[in-house]
Amino acid sequence: MSFKFTEENLKKIEAVREKYPTALAAVMPVIYIAQEQNGYLSNEAMEEIASVLGVDKVNVLSVVTFYTMYHTKPMGKYHVQVCTNVSCMLRGGYQIWDQVKGKLGLDHMQVSEDSKFSLEEVECMGACGYAPMLAVNEDYFENLTKEKVEEILDSLK
Q1: By CB count within 10 A, which of 86, 110, 124, 131 is most buried?
Q2: What are the φ/ψ torsions at residue 134 (nearest 5 degrees)?
Q3: Domain total for the chain?
Q4: Claim to verify: residue 118 and residue 50 sit in the same structural domain
Q5: With contact defined as beta carbons under 8 Å apart, do 8 and 16 qualify?
């Protein structure tokens, strides 16, 4: 399967590229554009990013594999991330994790058979003062209770 940016996304990349002093500095937003277009970052997508920016593929791969917001395999329509790092753990993060696992019938990095849900246990989502928290795609939910988690998950069905 080959990957090529759409004309619209090439224009977005051009605009992004103008904001940064070097092509390498523009890697993260361009990776995100590719992920939005393709749903995940295939090897072909990473090669195309490197080609469009004129950087080595290893520079792209190192960013993709470091950050949890980038995915190298297809995720569900609703990608649920639950933080279990120290602040969240101390305020019930593992109970939230177990609740979400049980409700969705998934474990870490699994995708439901209908591709509607995927689940990921993550380390620190930067909301320590509002723990425990989870994210669904780009939406963050903080100061969670079991009841709030039920409401959130039920709203996705």
Answers
A1: 131
A2: -145, 165
A3: 2
A4: no
A5: no
What stretches of 19-143 show up as alpha helix (H) in DSSP? 27-38, 43-53, 57-66, 86-90, 93-104
CB distance 84 to 97 below 8 Å: yes
Please determine, for residue 123, whether its predicted confidence score (pLDDT) is greater than 90. Answer: no
What's the mean per-residue pLDDT of the chain? 95
Q: Provide the residue type at 49 as one letter.
A: I
Q: Is the pLDDT at 157 greater than 90, yes or no?
A: no
The band of 82, judged by pLDDT with boundaries at 50, 70 and 90, is very high
134, β-bridge pairs: 82, 141
- Name the residue range of residue 24's domain: 7-66
- Domain end (from 42, 66, 90): 66
CB 27 within 8 A of CB 33: no
Residue 60's contacts (CB-CB under 8 Å, 6 or more residues apart) are: 27, 31, 46, 49, 50, 53
* Structural domain contains residue 93: yes
Q: What angle do CA 116, 126, 117 make, to 5 degrees?
A: 5
Residue 30 tokens read as 């361009």
Which of 108, 96, 106 is closest to 152 using CA atoms?
A: 96
Rounded CA separation 69/32 (Å): 9
